[in-house]
C-alpha cells in the first residue's frame, strides 16, 4: 500500500475534474479524497496498491476529462490513512 498527495495545477476547476478523478478512483478501488483549493488547484490523496495508484496518477496527468488542461502535478508521499475504505469529494 502507498499513499500519495497530489496538487494539480492548470485549468482544473469547473471542468468536472474532481468528479472524473472520483469515478476513476472508484473503478480502481482506490481510497482517498479529492478537493478544490482556493488557489485554483485540485488536491488529491490517493491510497492503495502501488501499481494501481501509479496507473491512476498517469490518468490524472493525461487529463481525466477533455475539458481540463494540466500544467503540473506535484506528488509527495504521505503516510497511510484511514479513509474508511472510500474515496470522497471534499470541500
TrEMBL record:
Residues 3-91 form the Acylphosphatase-like domain. This is acylphosphatase. Belongs to the acylphosphatase family. PANTHER family: ACYLPHOSPHATASE. Its EC number is 3.6.1.7. It is an enzyme of class 3 (hydrolase). The active site is at residues 18, 36. InterPro entries: Acylphosphatase, Acylphosphatase-like_dom, Acylphosphatase-like_dom_sf, Acylphosphatase_CS. It catalyses: an acyl phosphate + H2O = a carboxylate + phosphate + H(+). Keywords: Hydrolase. GO terms for molecular function: acylphosphatase activity. The lineage of its organism: Bacteria, Bacillati, Bacillota, Bacilli, Lactobacillales. The keyword Electron transport does not apply.
